[in-house]
Amino acid sequence: MIFVLLAVVCCYFLAALTVYAIRRMSFTRKRSGRHYFLLAGNEQHHLEWVIRSIRRYASRTGTEVTVTVIDCGSADETMSIAACLAKRDDSIRLSKRTAGEAQELWQGIQAVAGEEDGEAVLLDLRNPDRFWKLKL
């Protein structure tokens, strides 16, 4: 009887030790992340949906995600929607650029993308045919 009780206690102890070790390894492991650059013109109808889809993807896969919304001359409520979302989420950043400056910025990002950990993704919201095919 005592032998069975000791065996059960040892099993619980080993299970707790295993869980502790797995959690410790997952916190010390460096996580890869993605940085999404969204080029936005007059995209008030799509912007919130895209950002929420990216955030849902991040929570589903456990990937750290940063979103930078680049304003390329929008005249509607696009940037106010992005500012409202950025107030609630620290991983959303805003930038105001012209279309030419945004393309130069993207070329610079591609040049250093191999040096950094993670992945940079450019989504041009002004051309929605391309981002519908993303698996978010």
Q: What does the model show?
A:
With 136 residues, the chain is α/β, with parallel strands linked by helices. The protein folds into 2 domains: 1-30; 32-131, Spore Coat Polysaccharide Biosynthesis Protein SpsA, Chain A (Alpha-Beta Complex), CATH 3.90.550. 52% of the residues lie in helices and 20% in strands. The protein contains 5 helices and 4 strands. The chain has helices at 2-28, 47-61, 78-88, 99-112, 128-131, and strands at 33-40, 64-71, 92-96, 119-124. It has a 4-stranded parallel beta sheet with strand order 3-2-1-4, with helices on both faces. The model has no long low-confidence stretch (mean pLDDT 79).
Which features would summarize this protein structure in a list?
136 residues, alpha/beta, Spore Coat Polysaccharide Biosynthesis Protein SpsA, Chain A, 2 domains, four-stranded parallel beta sheet, 5 helices
Topology:
Elements: H1 2-28, E1 33-40, H2 47-61, E2 64-71, H3 78-88, E3 92-96, H4 99-112, E4 119-124, H5 128-131
Instruction: Characterize the main sheet.
Output: 4 strands, parallel
Beta percentage is: 15-25%
| Number of separate domains | 2
CATH class of the largest domain: Alpha Beta
Share of residues in helices: 40-55%
Low-confidence stretches: none
First-last Cα distance: 55 Å
How would you state the average pLDDT, rounded?
Answer: 79
- SS element count, helices: 5
Shape: elongated
Please identify, by name, the CATH architecture of the largest domain.
Answer: Alpha-Beta Complex
Structural class label: alpha/beta
H-E string: HEHEHEHEH
Question: Under CATH, the topology of the largest domain is which?
Answer: Spore Coat Polysaccharide Biosynthesis Protein SpsA, Chain A
C-alpha-based Rg, rounded: 22 Å
Output the strand order for the largest sheet: 3-2-1-4
Task: Find the CATH superfamily of the largest domain.
Answer: Spore Coat Polysaccharide Biosynthesis Protein SpsA, Chain A
Count the E strands: 4
